[in-house]
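Internal tracking record. Fields below are filled automatically when a chain is submitted to the structure queue. Please do not edit lines marked as system-generated. If the sequence contains nonstandard residues, flag them in the REMARKS field before resubmitting.
Queue: standard
Priority: normal
Entity type: single polypeptide chain
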Amino acid sequence: MTKIVKNTTANYALRLPRSLKTEVERLAAQDGVSVNQFIATAVAEKISAMKTAQFFVERKARADFAAFNRIMSRKEGEPPRPGDEPI
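SYSTEM-GENERATED OUTPUT FOLLOWS
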């Protein structure tokens, strides 16, 4: 049995300075998408960036820097393999 998922959207009246609206229209046309799709994608990218930043803040809070320093300063281990050279 296939589950039907309804695509729901919400409307939001957005007020932009004229210069910003003009640039959005230009870039959307250049990208081959509607202004609505361009703005929706921009909002999605911003949300993704903010969530990613929050992930790293939370991850940093759990980090064990003493263990990291011990691992990084140990003498044993294998030498770098070919192709592992720094760029």
